């Protein structure tokens, strides 16, 4: 296969999404989570972290407990990489998130190649940069502002919880957010506003919010989006207007995947400069 044939890579990614014996029959959601966690370590001030460098290949980052379960996604993508050894892991992991969102009925997301893997283990960003689901609005803001996002973008990005589920053995939380967790939609926002959520301890003793039938769930951080008035205003808009949500999600997710990605001749020197400050 010709180097640089990203359409062929996209097709190979689509082929690994249906997984009949896994979760809801789809690897799509966990691929989205991998793209997000690979990117969400970015720190705007120091220029460190982000998807460039695919630092989750290293044990230090892979074993951050926020990344529990993502080896499933990385292993599946290793199969794709065997067919296209010219693609960087950093490009492959981010592209897989984009392809998965489109495959599940979400918006088209702008994606550009050019990320590299040439980062030494010593430059892996420290653990603890990804959000902690047991916390509230102050924590959410400090994590996402660090990456350079505003309140509107935080809420738009959170709409990804329309996809997939929580696993007791990965995060301690359990269950899906919506009844059809392999279709991208704005149902998550509608449910946040409409359902009665009650706090309960799940089967492993972790506090989460459930609907009346204990079928659907919300994390404490999800509930913070309806408690905080500034976040809530965006939840209401996205619940009402699916097209607006799709547009804003595509822009924010595209921005997330670009955090810390510098291309061109100055690339390597600038990255080394940023890493020296880790
Ligand atoms: C799953 C937390 C933001 C996409 C999860 C899980 C937790 C979590 C605890 C369950 C993991 C598991 O047990 O398997 C958070 C927190 C966030 C946040 C605290 C911010 C405050 C985001 C963002 C995205 C995202 C910004 C993407 C744009 C996903 C997806 C899943 C997921 C797709 C489902 C994964 C699967 O089905 O395996 N998140 N998340 N999350 N998250 Fe988030």
UniProtKB/TrEMBL annotation:
CDD domains: ascorbate_peroxidase (cd00691). GO terms for molecular function: heme binding; metal ion binding; peroxidase activity. GO terms for biological process: cellular response to oxidative stress; hydrogen peroxide catabolic process; response to reactive oxygen species. Keywords: Heme, Iron, Metal-binding, Oxidoreductase, Peroxidase. Residues 87-278 form the Plant heme peroxidase family profile domain. It comes from the Eukaryota. Gene3D superfamilies: 1.10.520.10, Peroxidase, domain 2. InterPro entries: Ccp1-like (IPR044831), Haem_peroxidase (IPR002016), Haem_peroxidase_sf (IPR010255), Peroxidase_I (IPR002207), Peroxidases_AS (IPR019794). It holds the Pfam family peroxidase. Destroys radicals which are normally produced within the cells and which are toxic to biological systems. This is Peroxidase.
């Amino acid at each position: 296969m010709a180097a640089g044939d990203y359409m062929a890579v996209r097709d190979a990614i689509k082929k690994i999404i249906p997984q009949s014996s896994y979760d809801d029959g789809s690897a799509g959601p966990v691929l989205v989570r991998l793209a997000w966690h690979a990117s969400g370590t970015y720190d705007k001030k120091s220029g460190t972290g982000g998807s460039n460098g695919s630092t989750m290949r290293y044990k230090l980052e892979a074993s951050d407990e926020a990344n529990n379960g993502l080896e499933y996604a990385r292993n599946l993508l290793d199969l794709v990489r065997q067919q296209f050894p010219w693609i960087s892991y950093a490009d492959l992991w981010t592209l897989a998130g984009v392809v998965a969102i489109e495959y599940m009925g979400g918006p088209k997301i702008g994606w550009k190649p050019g990320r590299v893997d040439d980062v030494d283990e010593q430059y892996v960003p420290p653990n603890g940069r990804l959000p902690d689901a047991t916390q509230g609005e102050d924590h959410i803001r400090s994590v996402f502002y660090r990456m350079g996002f505003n309140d509107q973008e935080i809420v738009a990005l959170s709409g990804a919880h329309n996809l997939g589920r929580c696993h007791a053995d990965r995060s301690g939380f359990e269950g899906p957010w919506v009844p059809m967790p392999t279709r991208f939609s704005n149902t998550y926002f509608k449910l946040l506003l409409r359902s009665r959520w009650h706090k309960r301890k799940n089967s492993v003793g972790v506090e989460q919010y459930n609907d009346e039938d204990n079928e659907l769930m919300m994390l404490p951080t999800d509930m913070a989006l309806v408690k905080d008035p500034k976040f809530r205003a965006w939840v209401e808009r996205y619940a009402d207007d699916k097209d607006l949500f799709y547009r804003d999600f595509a822009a924010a997710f595209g921005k997330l995947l670009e955090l810390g990605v510098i291309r061109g001749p100055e690339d390597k020197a600038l990255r080394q400069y940023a890493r020296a400050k880790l």
